[in-house]
Each structure stands twice: as C-alpha cells, then as structure tokens.
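Example 3.2
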Amino acid sequence: MEKSSGLSDNIAPESADAMPSSAAVSSPDENLLLSVENLCLTEGSADGLSTRNVLDENGGSLQRIQENRINGLSQCQTGFENSMPVPPPLLSESVPGSNSLSNGGSFQGSRLQLWAESRAGSSMGDNNMVQNQEQLKKVRIFLGLLRGDTFVNHCSNQNGLRTIQGLLRLRNPEITSEICNKVLALSSRGTAVVLELMLDQHGRHVFGELIDSLNYQQLKLIIYEITKNLDEFVSLTLVKHGSNSIKRVIRLLRRSPLVSLVTNNLCAAFLTIMTNRIGSYVISECFKQLSAEDNKLLYEAAIESCLDLAIDHEGCLSLIRVFNTIQGMQRYRLLFILSANVAYLSQDQEGNYVVQKLISLNNPFLTQKICHHLRGYYATISLQKGGSHIAEQCLDTEWKSWVVEDFLSSPDKPLNAAKDEFGNYVIQKALKVTRKSDSLLYQKLLLCLQPHLSILESGYGRNVFNLITGG
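Structure, written as tokens:
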C-alpha cells in the first residue's frame, strides 16, 4: 500500500563547451574573464606529484604549482602575502571545509599554501611568490566584475559555475571571503543572491561548494540569510533545486548547533511542508541525518499534526515515513493517538493507509487496540476499498472473532458484504480463517449465507458462492 516518490540529487554530467578564442575577445574585461575561466581544475600526477594550474600575469597562459601529498592529504604550496586574515572556526570539527590560519599568512591544511615556504631563500621561490600575488590581483579584479545579477547569471551556466567552483576549491581565505560576501548581497530583484543560487539547477552546485569552503562564522551568516525569512525558506523547500540545497545544508550541519535554525523553521511550517511531496523529503532528511535530540521538536510537530497528515494524500505518506525513525515515548504517543482514531481513519481514502501501516507493525498491544476500536465498524468498512483491506488484516490476527461477530450481529450484514465489490473478499477471508480453526463461527456464517446462494450465484457474490459450494 505504500506509495513512494523520490528525488534525485544527481544532475547529468556536464560537458565542457568550447572556449572562445582570444581573437574573438575585444575588451580587457573579457580578456580577464577568459583568463580566470581558464583556471584548470584537472589534476595529473608524475613521480608522486600532481599539478594544479592557476593564472599567470599574461592572462591566457597557465602556471603550474606543485602539490605535495603528505600523509595521504594534498597540500598545494602557494599563497598571498596580502591575504585577508580569517578568524579560526568555532567548531572546526563540526563544519567540513572550515579554515584555520597559521604561520603568519600560510593557510595550513587547505589546498593552497605558501609556495615559497618550502623554498625559502631561493630566487625561484621569490619569483613564484610575486607571480602568485599577481594572480590573486587578477582574481580580485575578476570577482569585482561579478556583482548581483551578473554573479547569479555567471553561476547559472556550466562554464561559469566551474570557474567559481574552481576558485572555491583553492580554499584561499581571501577568495572564499570575497565570494561569500557576493552571495550575501542582494540582486536587482531584492532577493539575496544565495537564495537565487539555491533555486538554480547550476547555481545550487556553486552554493554547495561554497558552504563546504566556509569557516563557522561565515557559515553562520549564510544560514542566517537562508532562515531569517520564513516565507522565503518555505519556498525553497517546496521546489526541487531549493529542496536539494536545504538537504545539503542539513547534511553539513548534522553535528552543528546551527542546524537548529533550520529545524525551527521546519517546525514553524511543518504541516505545509509535510503535505508537499518535495518538501516532505527535507524533513525526512532531518529524521535520517540528525540525532533524536535535534529532531525532538520535529517529532512533536508530527504528533500534534498526525491526524491532519493522515487524511492528506502526501501527508499520509510522510507520516508513514515518520514511523521508521521515531522512538521512545514520542513513538508511543504518536501511535496511541492514531490507534484511538482508527474508526475515523479507516473510512478515509487516505487515512486507511495509515491504519494498514499500523497493523503491519505487528505490535500485539497496538493491534489489539486497533481491532477493539473497530468493533461495530467492520461491516461498514468492508464495503469500502481501503477499509476492506483493514478488515482482512484484522481477520489474520488472534482477534478475528471480533470481525466475524460484527457481521453476525445482523442477518443482512453477511449477505450485503458477500455480494459487494469489496466486501466479498472480506467474507471469503472470514470463511477461510474460521474453517481452518474449526470454529463455531464458521457454521454460524454458513447458516447466514446458505439461504441466499441463489442470489450469490452471479455478480460479485459468485466468489463466495464458489467457495461455499466448492464450485
């Protein structure tokens, strides 16, 4: 009975478009743009070393930088004398990609370190330091050209997003800080650039690379921007790319106190998000990734809204997924509320799926409670598509006698069910389970049906007729 709908976080591999020739470029700004976009992100190796290309002062040519592999981790040796100091993260172990500063300007543990550090006193080291300072100057100018809408548009195409991703992967604090400032700025539409990136099929990959590159303080600014307006946050969760971006944030923050900013917003709009197919998977991501303590308020919201969720098409599927993770006293409270309302839910076209799921949990105490609350309703729900499945499930339990006794309470009930499109399956099931146990209930059920065999010989009743007569 469970229906499932999934979202894929995957985007088809991007093919590199041919870059325009230098002859086609007429302005200095375009020359600079081409120069930075030629930043090579591919790695090759030789004699235990790999190379990563960055720009030289001629604009189009590339300067190789050696990347030493130390203890299985790569450390690119280069740096910038005038790099802006970035404070160390408050929770560096909690936030992947967080930065730390040491040695008066070298960026230890990042992909980009001081080239001259291992070559102190050599003219070659001094020369490369000068070149790298020139390269940083070019990147500054390039990023200065990308403001607001221009930055969004640049990140919204495959070539542009690869350029910005490449700059972020250098893990240089000044470059990362500059890009962070740009995504926190507003576009011409009055919306934060970061929100527009999260909604774009290409821009969301720049957003993902960015949050992986930030230190704790920078990440806090981004999360504040995403969560400060509840309506904008909810809008993100309800569309494909925005939903995927929020799920990436949840995975990144799973051990950080910043995740409470996200979960608080999810709680505030819980019913709206949980009754949306795309949005519900954002909350499901919390249930999968976060601790029970971090999910506590979300589970409370699920308990409070469980009946409204149970009668909604998307909500009932979302609620069923909650069963897979909720634990302890909160689980007991949720199941207690639902089981106490099974007579109502069993007759709802969506709610009956929740009742079926509850019975399938095979909890004896819970199943007995459900079967007890349905007494007096079995004959009624057997005439409904979903309800007939519930009645059949109850006939497979040790409380099956309650189901049969409900039919026997009136001489018309067995016949009405036997000739019904859905009810005939319930009567067949009742005859089979009572005959197998050689119960008196089987004889009583036969006595009610045999006088009406001529009526059952055609239509939906034929299935019951064949079972009784052996036809």
